[in-house]
Amino acid sequence: MISPLSLSGLFTLDPVRHGDDRGWFSEVFRTDKFREQVADVTFVQENRSLSQQAGTMRGLHFQTPPHAQGKLVSCIAGSLWDVAVDLRPGPSFGKWHAEELSAQNGRQFWIPAGFAHGFCTREPNTVISYKVTAFYAPDHDAGLAWDFGHADGAGVTWPEIANPDTLSAKDRNQPEIETVRGVFA
Ligand SMILES: Cc1cn([C@H]2C[C@H](O)[C@@H](COP(=O)(O)OP(=O)(O)O[C@H]3O[C@H](C)C(=O)[C@H](O)[C@H]3O)O2)c(=O)[nH]c1=O
After folding, report:
1. Which of 43, 46, 47 should be mutated for ligand 1, with most atoms under 8 A from CB?
2. pTM reported for the whole predicted model
3. Which residues are tagged with the site Participates in a stacking interaction with the thymidine ring of dTDP-4-oxo-6-deoxyglucose (predicted)?
4. Can you tell me the ipTM of this complex?
């Protein structure tokens, strides 16, 4: 099943699992169905990362134009809380949406270009896997603080298990959201 979400452009996808006495089989991605029902994009790279500790936080990241990335995110081991923050100009700027992704539920989260992406793992040895629509461009790698807006009572409400001590040095020094307003104008 493919479902549009409240923030326009975001979707969840729940591929069918054909079970039998061995286990299950699932078509987890098809270009034709994705282009018809979600977005007419082409994926050029697939990323995976292992986070050993539960509560590991990564993000909030994006690549600036012309290397902005759409991301089709899934969890292939363990479980995680995945969040997209809208950086597109307009009334939804700064709004966010999160999804629970796990190897068990097989759910996928489509995040188009124009959003920052981050996650927090819920189990040890969680692996995230995501296709992206633009190649890695380190000179266009950007981000915003995981706790943006918290001083004003706004921003992302991370799960209890989130552990800021797990943040990379880069992620401990990301800027406030106002500094990235207009990046996707
Ligand atoms: C993103 C990326 C990274 N790298 C190298 C660069 C570093 O040597 C190493 C770790 O990179 P980084 O610390 O940026 O990895 P994460 O903190 O997991 O960042 C990612 O996680 C958040 C949630 C995202 O959505 C982005 O895709 C991405 O920013 O992998 C590559 O070689 N290719 C790549 O595409």
Report:
1. 47
2. 0.97
3. 136
4. 0.98
